[in-house]
Every structure is written in C-alpha cells, then in structure tokens.
C-alpha cells in the first residue's frame, strides 16, 4: 500500500502553507540529481488519547547526518524542524499518521559542480496505516530475495536516506509486486542478508535472535535499535551477525522492522514456509513490546515519545 499524501497543510521552510501552495520549480536541483535527504516518522495515538511522535529527535538527527553524508547543509535548526513536525500533524488534524521531513536543493544552477542553490526543508504529514496492512502485521507477509544487491559500501551511502538512492528501493519493490510478493529482502554483494526495500531484517534461528550488523551496507534503522533494546529488556538476547539466505529459509521466525512497516512478520520466503507459516512467539512478543512502548501509560521508554 502507498500513502495518499493530500492534506490541508504542509510545513515549508518554517511556515505552514496550504497544501496546494507547497510547490517547487521544475529546475529544482534535487529533481534532476536526487541530492536531498529525507526521513519518515510516525505519529501514534496513545491509549490516553494523546498523539505522540516516535523517536522524533533521533529521526531529525539522522536527517542531518544524511545531509552531511550527501555534502549539503540544512539551513534550519533541528529544533525548528522538530517543531515543524509537531505543527503539521496538528494542522492536518491527525491523531495518527506518517510524517515526512525532506531537505532538498532548489532551483538556481544545474550541473554536477553547481553550488549555492537554496536548500529547503518541508514536512508533510498524512494518514498511513501500517504500510503492508493490518493483515500483514497479524498474519505475516510473503517475501522474496531480490536479484538486486545492497551496496557496495563505497557505491551507495547506506547509512543515509539520500533521495536519489531510493530509486533502487522503488525498483526492488515494484519487482517484488510484479512477481506477486509483498516485500523484497536484499543481500549484499557477498551474499549476506542486508535489508528490505525500506526495512531491517531479523531472524530467529535455532532459538537465537539475529540481525545483520551495521558494518553491512544497511540503514541503521531506528525501529531496529528500538526492537533490539526492547528484546534485551525482555531477556531476549540479540546477536548482530552476518548470515546468508539459507538461514532465512531454515529460520524459525523472520520479521522486518521499519517506521512504515513497524514490526512485520514474514511467513514465507522464496516459496519456503518460515517456521509454522505464522508469526512466531518471539516476533509476537516484540511486536507487543513495540506497540506497548508507544501506546501504554506503562511505556518503559517515555523518552522515545514527543507530544504533538
Ligand atoms: N532500511 C532502509 C533502506 C530504509 O529506508 C528504512 C526506513 N527508514 C529502514 C531500513 C528502517 O529504518 P527505520 O526503522 O529507521 O525506519
């Protein structure tokens, strides 16, 4: 599923503007070369009825890191962008939804060596339930191993959410839809399991929970880090270790984590049934722990939540 982005307001360079006024010129540098950075943040409604943004500070920090890796500067302070995320959720009357901060380079010059074009920051916010759907979250999805690889380390800046790099993720996702799957898992050039089109990967294999380490060409997912913290707090040991695709095929459980997909079980990979073909007990526990940390008054991590 994709998100319909129409809303009443967009935050644009520090101000809320009506949706239809949030326009850019066809000469915008990012439109041509993909040099921009973005984030995805979720707004959740808690059990007490309040709305919070999940790990907003960490997402905005990663936005600045992505821009730094992409060698451009964001001219607006972090705190102001964080405030913008809160304001646009409120202005659009959202209790829950998806928030997309984007820093992009506008019009002026073109050419690889062009410098000095203005950098803009926008935040859009719109309703977007778990991207693979509620049923995916309950029953698990069907995935395949993509024929596209992640990396190489020096070919793509995997620790950054740089706009242009996501063309690969879109191609990978479209291919998996064309082949009749819900999602793709990519390997690195050496055949190690890397990540999904926009998710990190976890497996339970012979009773042990594993996830690929950050020295592989993968994004340092904020949901990944949250799930690792919650697992350890629940007494479930997590080992960051590389593994090959055959471990996916023989795993007891596989799940994906990401802001858009949250914690999504995988029930089948390349035609092999994962475990019993339904979400396993560790996946379930971690799904519950994840949503509990956001929605419940007893959240063990109130610092992850920013009130809107
Ligand atoms: N990998 C990639 C390539 C992604 O785009 C995302 C989504 N941001 C993730 C992993 C998951 O990261 P997060 O949990 O921070 O959303």
Structure description:
The protein is globular, with a radius of gyration of 19 Å. The two termini are about 25 Å apart. The longest helix has 15 residues, at about 280-295. Strands 8, 9, 10, 11, 12, 13, 14, 15 and 16 form a 9-stranded mixed sheet that branches. It is about 25% helix and about 30% strand. It has helices at about 30-35, 55-70, 80-90, 135-140, 165-180, 220-235, 245-250, 280-295, and strands at about 10, 15-20, 35-40, 40-45, 50-55, 95-105, 120-125, 140-150, 185-190, 195, 200-205, 210, 240, 255-260, 260-270, 270-275, 305. The mean pLDDT is about 95. It is an alpha+beta fold. Strand 8, helix 5 (about 165-180) and strand 9 (about 185-190) form a beta-alpha-beta unit. The chain contains 8 helices and 17 strands. 4'-deoxy-4'-aminopyridoxal-5'-phosphate binds near residues 40, 200, 221, 223 and 258.
Q: Count of DSSP helices?
A: 8
Unreliable spans are none
Global outline: globular
The counted number of beta strands is 17
| Termini gap | 26 Å
Average pLDDT, rounded to a whole number, is 96
The whole-angstrom Rg is 19 Å
Q: What structural class is derived from the secondary structure elements?
A: alpha+beta
Bound molecules: 4'-deoxy-4'-aminopyridoxal-5'-phosphate
Order of helices and strands: EEHEEEHHEEHEHEEEEHEHEEEHE
Major pleated sheet: 9 strands, mixed
Helix content estimate: 25-40%
How large is the share of residues in beta strands?
25-35%
